[in-house]
Amino acid sequence: MTKGHDAVPDAERERLRRYLEAVVAARPAPVHTTVAFNAVYFGYDLGGEGYGGSPLRLDDFPVITFGACAPVLPVGAMVCVTTGSDPLFAEIVYREGAHPGVSAHGDVPAWVSGAPAGAEGPDAPGDGAAPRRRELLVPDVHAFGPGLSLSPVQLRRLRARGRWINGAGHVVVDVCYPSPEAARRDESTAYTEYLLTSAREQLLSPFVPVSLADLVGGTDDDDLRAGLLGLLDTVRGVLASSDLLRMWGEYATTRAALAACRRETGPLGGDDLTSLAAAVEHAAVPGQRRYGLGAPVTVYTAVGPRLRGFPGAAEPLAGTGYAAAVCRANIALADVVRNGSEQGLFENGSRITLDDAFEGGGVWRSHHPGDAEAPGDPLLPAGRGWASTASTSPAPSASSAPSASPAPLGTRPEAEPDPVDLPLADEAHIGPDELLCDEADLVARRAPLRLSHLTHAWFPLHPAVARRLPPTRGRSSALRLELEHAGQTLAEAEAVQLVAAEPGDGTHRLTPIAWPHAFFPGLLLELRWAPGAGVIRMATVAVEEPVRVGDRVTGHRYDPRVLTREDVPGSDRHGDSAVGLGPRQLVMRTVRRCGLLTLDGHALLDRSLLPHAAYGLRPAPSQQAALESAVTELLAQRVLEPALGSRDARGRPRFPARDGQAAIALIGYRPAVRRVIRPWGGTDTEPGGAELLAAQFVSGHLRRLRPGCSPSDGQRTAFREHCRRLGKADGWELPYGYTFVTEHTRGH
User: Fold this and answer.
1) Best CA proximity match to 521, nearest among 565, 563, 485
2) What percent of the chain has pLDDT over 70?
3) DSSP string, 486-550
4) How far apart are CA 113 and CA 381, in angstroms?
5) Spatial separation of the C-alpha atoms in residues 554 and 564, rounded to whole Å
6) Is the pLDDT of residue 23 over 70?
7) CA torsion, points 680, 685, 688, 693, in degrees to nearest 10?
8) Is CB count within 10 Å lower at the N or C end of the chain?
9) DSSP letter for each residue of 596-627
10) Which candidate, 273, 413, 292, places its Cα nearest to that of 332?
C-alpha cells in the first residue's frame, strides 16, 4: 500500500479491494475508513481471530478511565478500558453526538443541528477555550478475537452495572477537546492526530508488516502526517470504488446486508425503514387549516432516537448493531430523497435535507413549503438549524427594545455615523473586455458599461485600438462616435457625437460621451473600428424577449455581475453615495456591493458583518436595530435569501460552506430574472423599445368584484397557480367576492 490512491498499481488495488470487501462482510458494524486502515496496517484476520493474531502489543494501547470528562477517542482508536475487574480491549468503530437536548423520540431543537462543540444554546457558541461535547461511542469488544474478549457473562455484568458501558454496550461520555479547532476536525484528521500522539507507540511499532516510518523515510511528524493522510485517502478511494459496497459518509457496508435488511419483516427491517422515511417526509406537512397563508414549518429529526422507538428494537440496537442500523437507516433515507424528489423537494411540498451528519446518528431537516428555498445538494450536511437560530435571529423590534438612557445634563448625545462606501471587493474582476476581432481592417470588442463611465462621461478604448490610433502632435485624437441602441431611435445629439481619444490611467478613453438616458451599468456594448478611419461605432445587443431583473426591465444583453454591483440604490449618472438612504436601501446596496459575487450575479454577505460594511464602524444601537429590521423584512419578502457559508482560516467567507471551516450565516441577493408579460394591444413590438423601458411591473393581486359578479374559471385557475408558486400551504380557492388579476406590465 502506497501513499496515494492514484499511485497504487491496478493489481495491488484490486487485491486491496477484495480484502477490504471481505473485511466489511466479516465485521458486525459498518467499516469506517479509519477502521479499514487498521485492518490493512495492523492485520485483521478474517478467520475469526480479528486482531488477535496481529503484531499489536496490548501494552501500547492507551489506557482509558472514563470519568467526568473523557479524552478524544476518534473512530479507529484501539483502547484498553479499565473496569472493576478484567480490562476491556476494544476498537471504537462508530461515534456520534449525544446531545441531551435531543428527545427520546428524535425531536431535535433547531439550534442543536449543526451546532459547534460547546454550544449551550442559540447565540451561545461556548467560551471557545476547551469545548466539551457529549458523544456516544460504539466499541467492538470482540475485535481482538476470543482470547482477548470478555465472556458473555462478564459483558452482561458490565452492561448491568452501567459504569463503563451502558445497558446497550455503548459508551456515553463528555469529551474534552483541547481547542475549538480540534473539535471541528473530520474523523480522518482526528484519527491521524490521535495516532501521532496518544497511539504513537502503536503506530510506530516495529512488529507491523510495513512501518509508516519506513514508508515515509523517517519519524518527522509532518512526514508521518502526510503519509497517514495519503494512506487513508487510498483506503477511502478503494472502498468507494467497490461494486459490492455502499458508503454512508465514510462508513462502508455490503449491498447484500442492505438487501437482507429490507427483506426483513421484524424490528428495524424494511417495514420500519419505510415507516421512518414516511415520518421524515411528512414531518413538516401542515394539517388542514382555515383559509389563509400558513407560516413555514421546519422539523429536525434524529435517526438514532427514532430507531430506538420502534417496538422490539432494544436488542437489535445493542452493541455494534446500533452502528449498523443507523447506517442502514440513513442510506434508506438518502435513497428516498435521491429517487423520490427533485433535489429534496417532494410532491407534498416538503423539502427533506440532511442537516447534521454527526448528531444523534444523523439529523434530517423537513421544511414546508420547500419550494420557497433555493435548491442544493440535499445530502450535503448544511447545518441550517444552528445557522438559523445562532446567526440569523431577527433583532428585537422597536417596541420591545429597551429605551436608551437619557444623556447626562450638559452633554450632547453621540451623533449617528453616516454610512460609508467600501471599495468593491472584486473591482478588477468584473466587467472584463472581450476582444472579438483584431484584424488589419477591423478591431471589434465587447465590454459592459460601468457606473464610472456614466458618471464621468467616458469609455475606455481597448489597447488594440489605442495603439493603432493615428499619431497626433497634441494629447488627443478627434474621432466620430456613432451610437446605436437596438430597437430604439436615439436623439441626433446622442446618435452621432464628436469625441476625443485621450490618454488616462494607463489606457486611452473616449470622452466626453453624452450617454442616452436608457443606458445603465452593466449594459453590454459592442465597438467596431476600422484602423485608420475616424469613426468608431458602438451598439447595444438586443435579446429575443425582454426580461425584468430586480427593478429593471431591459430588452438588451447585460453583464449580471456589473448590474448587481453598480446598479444599486444611491447610484446613478449624477453620483454614487450611500448617504441619505433608508435602512432597506442601505441593506440592499451593502449586500450587492460588498458580498461574494457569483458569475450569474448573485451576491452573498456575512450577515454578522453587515453593520461594519454599511457604516465602516459599529453603528449606533438605533441604526443597527433598523438594519436588522430591514433584513428581516427583506428576507420575509424574499427580496433577500438566507444561505449557509463558512469562514476560512484568514477570516474570508466562502460559499458553499467548506468542510473543516466554521459555518456562518449569509444573506444573499438573488437577481431573479423574469420574462416580461406584455400588455394586450401594445404597439411596441421591438425588444427594448422606449415604452418597454418605461414599463411598470404589476404583481398578481386580488381585486374586489362588483355585487352580483363572479370570477371566471380562468382567473380561478390563475389564482391556484399563483398560490402554488408562492408555496401557499392551503386555501388555494379565490375568496368570495374577489377575482384575481395576473401579473403584467403597464406604461406610465
Assistant:
1) 563
2) 84
3) TTSPPPHHHHEEEEEEEEETTEEEEE-----TT--TTBEEEEEE-TT-SEEEEEE-EEEEEEEET
4) 10
5) 14
6) yes
7) -40
8) C
9) EE-TTS-EEEEGGGHHHHHHSSPPPHHHHHHH
10) 273
pLDDT tens digits, 380-429: 998 999 988 754 433 333 222 333 333 333 333 445 777 877 667 666 66
Q: Which of 607, 560, 567, 574 is nearest to 589 (CA)?
A: 567
Residue 475, pLDDT score: 57
Give the model's confidence band at 305: pLDDT under 50 very low, under 70 low, under 90 confident, else very high. Answer: very high
Measure the CA–CA gap between 700 and 733, rounded to whole angstroms: 15
Residue 259 near residue 332 (C-beta atoms within 8 A): no
Residue 255 has what pLDDT? 95
Q: pTM for the full model?
A: 0.55
Strand partners, 437: 444
Question: Are 355 and 292 a contacting pair, CB within 8 Å?
Answer: no
Burial of 743 (0-12, 13-18, 19+ CB in 10 A): middle
DSSP 32-72: EHHHHHHIIIII-BTTTTBGGGSS--GGGSPEE---SSBPP
The contacts of residue 224 (CB under 8 Å, 6+ apart) are: 196, 203, 212, 213, 216
**Whether 360 contacts 329, CB under 8 Å:** no
H helices present in 242-397, as ranges: 255-263, 270-281, 303-308, 321-340, 384-390
User: Which of the two residues, 619 and 197, has the higher pLDDT score?
Assistant: 197
Nearest to 360 by CA among 96, 183, 112: 96
**Joined grid coordinates for residue 403:** 429605551
Q: What's the mean per-residue pLDDT of the chain?
A: 82
Three cell numbers at 370?
A: 420547500
Picking from 308, 321, 421, the residue whose alpha carbon sits closest to that of residue 360 is: 308
C-alpha cell belonging to residue 134: 457529549
The CA-atom distances, in angstroms, between 378 and each of 120, 246, 654 are: 27, 18, 19
Alpha-carbon distance of 183 to 97, in angstroms, equals: 12
* Residue 73 CB contacts under 8 Å (≥ 6 apart), including other chains: 64, 79, 92, 95, 137, 175, 194
Output the pLDDT for position 415.
56
Tell how far CA 322 is from the center of its chain: 30
Backbone phi, psi, residue 571, to 5°: -125, 125
Tell me how far the alpha carbon of residue 81 is from its chain's centroid.
40
Q: Which helix (H) or strand (E) holds 576?
A: strand 575-576
